[in-house]
Amino acid sequence: MSAPAVAVRDLRVQLAGVPILTGVDLSVAAGEWVTVIGPNGAGKSTLLRAVGGLLPTEDAVSLFGTPIQQLRRRDRARVVATVAQSPVVPAGMSVLDYVLLGRTPYIAPLGRESTADLAAAHDVLDRLDLTGFHARELATLSGGERQRVFLARAFAQGATLLLLDEPTSALDIGHQQDVLELVDQLRRAHGLTVVATMHDLSIAGEYADRLVLLADGQVAAVGNPREVLTTELLARHYRATVKVIDGERGPLVVPVRPASAPDGVLGRC
């Protein structure tokens, strides 16, 4: 039996002395799409950063059977590609040069990108509807355009594990669908593993094989979308009044206005 793509055991993370994750366990099979959901402050982004090797984890995280702390940076970059919510962008950098940063793990020290590297960058830009943007400076792009460029860099990296932190947060609904369909196509065609965080619960339920609900730094629920996206769980952990509709590809979560209490105060779930 092969090792899982991601194995997290009793992960505990403190930032500035404040506990963020307190004993998280998670296993993601190779080729699986798992999306982490939860209210603000639950620890979703922190979990992704830990899985990506950006936080010390004391051997709590393994990728494809190897403790992440044992992977050299270049080797880790060939395994895992991360798209953060707000990546740091060097001033004056063009779209093409930024996407080519994803090819760094394959370029020798002091070397230059090859014809194959350039072809990979151009291909992913075209697939993300960024044809003609190659020479544009990132600073001149809209938020949605920049988000697609950030994703392009991750795709160009050719890693087997994609970590996507709110990948559609700045996109209109059309580009949301384009990006997520492309992620799913690449996953199925190349056996990629995807771990994402999302706030849009309906989209999360349509694309993920499994959902992990984080609350207060712990796993509150895990299972397929229909097991996790229930009115009871969402009321308890989001303090939200919703209606869950059975859609063709997963449950659809529709917010509904809470009923007013007799004294005029909004009722709680």
TrEMBL record:
<dbReference type="InterPro" id="IPR027417">
    <property type="entry name" value="P-loop_NTPase"/>
</dbReference>
<dbReference type="InterPro" id="IPR017871">
    <property type="entry name" value="ABC_transporter-like_CS"/>
</dbReference>
<keyword id="KW-0813">Transport</keyword>
<dbReference type="GO" id="GO:0016887">
    <property type="term" value="F:ATP hydrolysis activity"/>
</dbReference>
<dbReference type="InterPro" id="IPR003593">
    <property type="entry name" value="AAA+_ATPase"/>
</dbReference>
<keyword id="KW-1278">Translocase</keyword>
<dbReference type="GO" id="GO:0005524">
    <property type="term" value="F:ATP binding"/>
</dbReference>
<dbReference type="Pfam" id="PF00005">
    <property type="entry name" value="ABC_tran"/>
</dbReference>
<dbReference type="InterPro" id="IPR003439">
    <property type="entry name" value="ABC_transporter-like_ATP-bd"/>
</dbReference>
<keyword id="KW-0067">ATP-binding</keyword>
<keyword id="KW-0547">Nucleotide-binding</keyword>
<protein>
    <submittedName>
        <fullName>ABC transporter related</fullName>
    </submittedName>
</protein>
<feature type="domain" description="ABC transporter">
    <location>
        <begin position="6"/>
        <end position="241"/>
    </location>
</feature>
